[in-house]
Design goal:
5% strand, mainly alpha
């Protein structure tokens, strides 16, 4: 029994160590509070407009903070915001850094991964606790990829997802990158911070990223015309 408890304590210590390493990695990252702190069903009476205006007002400041964070680590992310390039090299550099730097969770002999799914509720919370730096980084990383798409395809823009048919989706009531629908094609709704929460969580799995997803893949799809009925970017 003593040996079992020692193993359990060791596993808990490793899990705590991985969480602490993640907090240390983003300890100096500028923290911000998500703009949608009201119930997603209660966006009424101008609160949608106020939330979106706050998001757009902070956009350039947040992008500058993220680019500075990457620059301090030897990564030039600015080409992602230059519509004259495809941004692929910068996206690859960021994804490689994420893969090499994000701490992996300890292997569990019972389940393999002690935390197979990200904590979406904690990510969406107004009070993000010790993970606030990491979650703010993910928000800004999603903003960066979203802006990279928007600047290359102006049909996309930031808006709050209130499509009735998506009321059961996690992105409903949140600011997303949205391309309006047409007679041929349904609206495209991209919740990039939430997508990157899953991408980065997969990278921290005990045995690495088995999902195959990466930062920049949504941008690559947009550039390739994946979101168009014709398959070509207009």
């Amino acid at each position: 029994m003593a040996g079992l408890w020692e193993k359990l304590r060791g596993r808990i210590a490793k899990e705590h160590g991985a969480a602490t390493a993640l907090q240390r990695l983003f300890a100096a990252y500028p923290v911000h509070v998500p703009v949608q702190t009201v119930h997603r069903e209660t966006f009424r009476d101008g609160r949608e407009d106020a939330a979106l205006a706050a998001f757009l007002r902070r956009r350039e400041h947040r992008l500058a903070a993220l680019l500075d964070y990457f620059a301090q680590r030897g990564i030039t992310a600015a080409p992602l915001l230059d519509s004259a390039t495809n941004g692929a090299a910068a996206a690859h550099a960021i994804d490689a850094w994420l893969t090499a730097t994000l701490p992996r969770r300890p292997f569990s002999p019972v389940s393999g991964d002690p935390e197979p799914n990200p904590d979406v509720r904690a990510f969406r919370a107004a009070d993000r606790g010790p993970a606030a730096g990491y979650y703010s980084f993910l928000d800004d990383l999603g903003l960066l990829e979203g802006e990279a798409i928007r600047r290359r395809d102006r049909r996309f823009d930031w808006a709050i997802n209130h499509f009735p048919e998506q009321a059961e989706f996690e992105s409903y009531g949140h600011i997303c990158l949205i391309k309006p629908g047409t007679l041929e094609w349904a609206p495209v709704v991209l919740d990039l911070p939430l997508h990157l929460l899953s991408v980065c969580h997969a990278k921290m799995a005990p045995r690495g990223n088995a999902s195959g997803h990466a930062f920049g893949e949504v941008l690559g799809g947009a550039v390739a015309g994946t979101f168009d009925p014709s398959g070509t970017l207009r």
